[in-house]
Amino acid sequence: MSLPAPVERTPLHTRRITFRGYHRHDRLWDIEAELTDAKGYPFTSPGLGTLPPDTLIHNMAIRATLDETLTIREIAATMNGKPQTECALATHPMQQLVGCTMGPGWRATLERHLGGIKGCTHLRELMFNMATAAFQTIPTHHELLLRQAGEPVGDDGQPPYHLGKCMSWDFNGPLVQKHFPQFQGWQPLNRIK
Fold this sequence. Notes:
With about 190 residues, this protein is an alpha+beta fold. About 20% of the residues lie in helices and about 25% in strands. It contains 3 helices and 6 strands. Strands 1-2-5-6 form a 4-stranded antiparallel sheet, with helices on one face. Strands 3-4 form a two-stranded antiparallel ribbon. A hairpin with a 3-residue loop joins strand 3 (about 45) and strand 4 (about 50).
């Protein structure tokens, strides 16, 4: 599926974000995130001077090592490209996330530890979305292993976490009725939406 054809235009800015999930041999998980920003024209920055088009203004990466509960055990952050030398100072506060769990309340956790002038906007954005990549990596891999072993998946009487989180997975919608009929019309109790 493609977007409708645009009117004639000039490229001005490109942001690329990539997430990768890995299962480590020590039974932990690495989730990595990378962000780059580049302008399509000569860009002047007070910290860098004038840069030619397509020079990476931001080039940063994070690796969060998680356990099976999505709790951060280790974290590393780097800024190979930054508009100001002071930006590199924002990698150290990332260590405050060690021991935090990617789950309900994750956005509030990030704001508490890295919000405003406590951290970097771009690293915080990556960390927020890293939780989705972790969820796509760890529980999904567990389900695959259970299926391969012929064991039941999600037999605890609770709906999978993604149900009720978007229009497609509405508890009253056709997908839940088709794939999770036992949760059709389910009403969450004290569940964060």
